[in-house]
Amino acid sequence: MFGLFGPRPAQQMERFRSRYTARSLIVHQGFAGDWLEELLKQPGGGGHFRIDSRPLPRRRPTPVEWLVQTHILPLELPQPLFLDVREDAILARHLTRGGHPVHPSEIAWFLEELDRRHHARLAFTGDGDLQVQRGMPEQDNEALSMLEQLGL
Question: What pLDDT is attached to residue 57?
């Protein structure tokens, strides 16, 4: 499909990686209440790229839209979903607990433990694809580093 009407998957992946490596994304379906306002109040909260997954797919998706619809949405993780784009992989952790978004201040705690506590690791392959490795269970989304700091 992409070959006739737009860039091939390997080209889309290369474009995505050149733009978003060493950056973070929040994939969402809109923000309830003042969640976005609270996110922007957090240190570094305005530095996360945000992409609304509701209007996807498009006929000619941008590289980030293509990545979300081709690789992220099929994971079927709750949204909002935090993506940390690294040189070798994308680490994904959803931002919900009990069916509701966590407070944006918890993102900092999640980042502290993201290397070892993520819901999925999507490793870049040499052919422009991603190899998915599931991490912690979807139901587990406590910020353990926060609980440890509080002595709980």
Answer: 67
Tally of residues, the chain: 152
Please, is 108 exposed, middle or buried when counting C-beta atoms within 10 Å of its C-beta (0-12, 13-18, 19+)?
middle
Distance (Å, rounded) from C-alpha 81 to C-alpha 66? 16
CA distances in angstroms from 7 to 33, 70, 115, 118, 126, listed in the order given: 37, 14, 32, 30, 17
| Cis amide linkage into residue 78, ω under 30° from 0 | no
What's residue 2's pLDDT? 43
pTM over 0.85: yes
- How many Cβ atoms are within 10 Å of 86's Cβ, its own excluded? 18
C-alpha closest to that of 142 among 124, 119, 125, 121: 119
